[in-house]
């Protein structure tokens, strides 16, 4: 008889099968999900691997174009003073010491009240034509010039170039800036300190160090403050180089994966070098300062290799938080952080105790805040950008790291800024006004290189550039071109030619009547050309211009280099032509350069980021006016300053220095102009108000004073007085235009073209009678 299984037992065991089946399904689902997640993780990892390698192997950074001034070239006979020379050295970050020990140092010795000697250890520089090695040399300055220039062995040197000053840049859209360096360029103490503070086990881990977090936590607890972080240098690089600064689990996982991938594909040296160039170290306005090399310039205006232990410690300390430890805003906080880093350096055996204590007691040694701004001379850099954009795409200028060498002379620029700023303040105080503005352009004579350019009375202002964009009537600055038009016809005109200065009425195209008058409302009858120009007679100039023809005067302005519109109306003869100071400098340079036209240029050379020549900007010369006529005109423009509207200038200059120029004042004194030159420098100054309202300034009472303040400080030489072929000097009677003699009344010494010498002589010359008084004869 078969026994039955108890029903209760059957009920108890029957549900076990579906439960085991459900667990198996869950495990299977979990397996599938894990495989799916692993596949997703693998795909994500492969994607991250592509991202890591693409950026690291490719173009890591958009590098700004770097703009440099002209280098300071020293040679025996160079016009220079100790004050100007030391100003140049300090602008380049040279440090004055008692004894030379490293590049970037100067030892000064005063030999006498008139002579100063300097021992200098230059830094060397990669110029456009060759690499200049760092070297020691000596230079002595006395009597306003370089007396001797010798190398370390005492042998004479023909030339020595100091590195140019970096004056600005053309930045990417993100406005990040960095100076790229290789590990071999770094002082060893920097790399060792960085690893000691930020990642002691950098050489041992593979991108992520789980123990580093615990180790850092223990150290920080023991020290009572945050000394070390838990992230490796590789993780820090990934966070800064690839990721945002959001804080969530997904980003931390991504950071860890990318760190391992980075270590898998690249060497420790490559990772560390990239970190050193990427790390964020501060802010200069809107410009982000990245990398230790630029950080060194930003805070100390010195190359990285010249920094001492406390300076390196400050930079390494900023890695933890450049804003929090900003040494300008929070000097006590920055000092405490720096000294903590110095303690770590001592504990790691990088410096001894004596050096640690010395460095901890040292001041921060920062440059003045704002002294390393994004663009030192914004008006000039704006000109550079405009000239570059004729040859380069905007994107290339902002990302390819071009090195642009310019014509700017920091010495001349600083002196121009000082002259404009001081004189404007004086004029505003004198006339009880506050809203005067100004601009200035300074060029070399002959080469057409722009040495200085100011677009605002605040020279650091990066807004409206008056030197380039403020187009104002030029007034009497146009007059030399009217007279040049006449002198270009030597068969008809010379400086002795007589012209009427009587009132004049000229009918315009639309029946309007133009009646110019002289500034003092006085007519002067018949006057020679030289006097009409030197005294700036409006009536005589208008009459002469109408005799010559408006078209010919306009053609002269165009030949001189003006490319703007010239209205065909008689008032252009007295300056109703709108020009910028830069435009005026261009046409006046042709006058100063003996009739040779040269486009004004601000750029000398352009190199690629690795120093390869990309484009040169050679000197372009074209003789557009005869040397004879421009020499005669220059002489008449010297008389403007000797006895005419600009005669006050010789209150600041020796009579032996020949200078030439022309004042300009527009209606209601809205614009005060002066354009003048020596044999070496040309400067154009404009003063006025932005709203074009009247000012209390004439050309001689405003712009001329700024010009004289500048030129009196510049080491310069006089206008060339050597007569060209076909021109010779003779005495001329100012009243009749006839040949005269030195002892005759009214005789003036003028250059005359051989093709147009007076055919007749004054009675005094013919009879040889000396019309001078007995007293004049006695004293002469």
Structural class: alpha+beta
**CATH evolutionary superfamily of the largest domain:** DD-peptidase/beta-lactamase superfamily
- How many helices does DSSP assign? 25
Q: Round the mean pLDDT to the nearest integer and report it.
A: 87
Contiguous runs where pLDDT drops below 50 for at least 5 residues: 7-14, 771-780
The domain count comes to 4
Named CATH topology of the largest domain: Beta-lactamase
**What is the strand tally?**
32
Which shape, going by the Cα principal axes?
A: elongated
* First-residue to last-residue Cα separation: 168 Å
Largest sheet: 5 strands, mixed
Sheet-strand content, in percent, reads 15-25%
Please, could you describe this protein's structure?
By secondary structure, this protein is α+β, with helices and mostly antiparallel strands. The chain has 4 domains: 71-163, Penicillin-binding protein 1b fold; 176-361, Orthogonal Bundle (Penicillin binding protein transpeptidase fold); 418-711, DD-peptidase/beta-lactamase superfamily (Beta-lactamase); 727-779, no CATH class. Helix 4 packs across helix 10 (309-318), helix 6 (233-241) crosses helix 8 (268-278) and helix 20 (550-560) crosses helix 21 (581-592). It is elongated and about 135 Å long.
């Amino acid at each position: 008889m078969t026994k039955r299984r108890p029903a209760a037992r059957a009920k108890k065991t029957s549900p076990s099968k579906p439960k085991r089946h459900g667990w198996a399904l869950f495990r299977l689902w979990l397996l599938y999900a894990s495989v799916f997640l692993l596949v997703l993780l693998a795909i994500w990892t492969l994607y991250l691997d592509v991202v890591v390698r693409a950026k690291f192997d490719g173009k890591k950074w958009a590098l700004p174009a770097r703009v440099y001034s002209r280098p300071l070239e020293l040679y025996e006979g160079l016009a220079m003073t100790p004050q100007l020379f030391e100003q140049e050295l300090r602008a380049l970050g040279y440090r004055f010491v008692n004894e030379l020990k490293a590049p970037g140092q100067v030892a000064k010795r005063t030999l006498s009240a008139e002579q100063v000697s300097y021992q200098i250890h230059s830094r060397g520089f990669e110029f456009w034509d060759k690499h200049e090695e760092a070297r020691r040399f000596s230079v002595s300055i006395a009597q306003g010039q370089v007396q001797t220039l010798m190398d370390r062995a005492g042998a004479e040197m023909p030339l020595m170039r100091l590195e140019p000053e970096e004056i600005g840049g053309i930045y990417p859209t993100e406005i990040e800036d960095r100076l790229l360096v290789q590990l071999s360029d770094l002082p060893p103490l920097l790399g060792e300190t960085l690893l000691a503070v930020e990642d002691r086990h950098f050489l041992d881990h593979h991108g992520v160090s789980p123990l580093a977090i615990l180790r850092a936590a223990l150290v920080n607890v023991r020290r009572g403050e945050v000394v070390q972080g838990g992230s490796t240098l590789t993780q820090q690089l990934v966070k800064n180089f690839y990721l945002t600064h959001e804080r969530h689990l997904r980003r931390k996982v991504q950071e860890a994966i990318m760190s391992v991938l980075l270590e898998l594909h690249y060497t420790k040296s490559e990772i560390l070098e990239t970190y050193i160039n990427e790390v964020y170290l501060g802010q200069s306005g809107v410009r982000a300062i990245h990398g230790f090399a630029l950080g060194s310039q930003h805070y100390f205006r010195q190359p990285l290799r010249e920094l001492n232990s406390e300076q390196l410690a400050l930079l390494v300390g900023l890695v933890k938080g450049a804003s929090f430890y900003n040494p300008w805003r929070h000097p006590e906080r920055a000092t405490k952080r720096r000294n903590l880093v110095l303690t770590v350096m001592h504990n790691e055996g990088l410096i001894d105790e004596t050096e640690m204590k010395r460095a901890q007691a040292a001041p921060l040694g920062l440059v003045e805040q704002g002294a390393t701004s994004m663009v030192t001379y914004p008006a000039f850099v704006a000109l550079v950008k405009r000239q570059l954009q004729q040859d380069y795409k905007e994107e290339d200028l902002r990302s390819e790291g071009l090195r642009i060498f310019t014509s700017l002379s920091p010495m001349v620029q600083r002196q121009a800024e000082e002259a404009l700023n001081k004189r404007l303040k004086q004029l505003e105080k004198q006339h009880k006004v506050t809203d005067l503005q100004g601009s200035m352009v300074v060029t070399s004579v002959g080469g057409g290189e722009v040495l200085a350019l100011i677009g605002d009375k605040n020279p650091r202002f990066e807004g409206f550039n008056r030197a380039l964009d403020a187009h104002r009537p030029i007034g009497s600055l146009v007059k030399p071109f009217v007279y040049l038009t006449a002198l270009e016809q030597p068969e008809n005109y010379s400086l002795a030619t007589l012209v009427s200065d009587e009132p004049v009425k000229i009918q315009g195209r639309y029946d309007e009547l133009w009646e110019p008058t002289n500034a003092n409302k006085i007519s002067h009858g018949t006057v020679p050309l030289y006097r009409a120009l030197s005294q700036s007679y409006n009536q005589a100039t208008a009459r002469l211009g109408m005799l010559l023809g408006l078209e010919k005067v306009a053609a002269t302005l165009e030949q001189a280099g003006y490319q703007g519109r010239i209205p065909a109306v008689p008032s252009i003869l007295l300056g109703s032509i709108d020009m910028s100071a830069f435009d005026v400098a261009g046409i006046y340079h042709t006058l100063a350069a003996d009739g040779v036209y040269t486009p004004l240029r601000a750029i000398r050379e352009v190199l690629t980021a690795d120093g390869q020549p990309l484009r040169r900007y050679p000197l372009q010369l074209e003789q557009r006016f005869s040397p004879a006529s421009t020499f005669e005109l220059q002489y008449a423009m010297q008389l403007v300053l000797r006895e005419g509207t600009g005669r006050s200038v010789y209150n600041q200059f020796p009579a032996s220095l020949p200078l030439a120029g022309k004042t300009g004042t527009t209606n209601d004194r809205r614009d005060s102009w002066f354009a003048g030159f020596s044999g070496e420098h040309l400067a154009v100054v404009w003063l006025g108000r932005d709203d074009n309202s009247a000012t209390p300034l004439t050309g001689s009472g405003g712009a001329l004073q700024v010009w004289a303040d500048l030129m009196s400080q510049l080491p310069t030489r006089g206008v060339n007085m050597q007569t060209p072929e076909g021109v010779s000097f003779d005495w001329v009677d100012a009243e009749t235009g006839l040949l005269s003699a030195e002892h005759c009344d009214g005789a003036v010494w003028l250059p005359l073209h051989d093709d147009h010498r007076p055919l007749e002589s004054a009675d005094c010359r013919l009879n040889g009678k000396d019309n001078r008084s007995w007293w004049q004869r006695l004293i002469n």
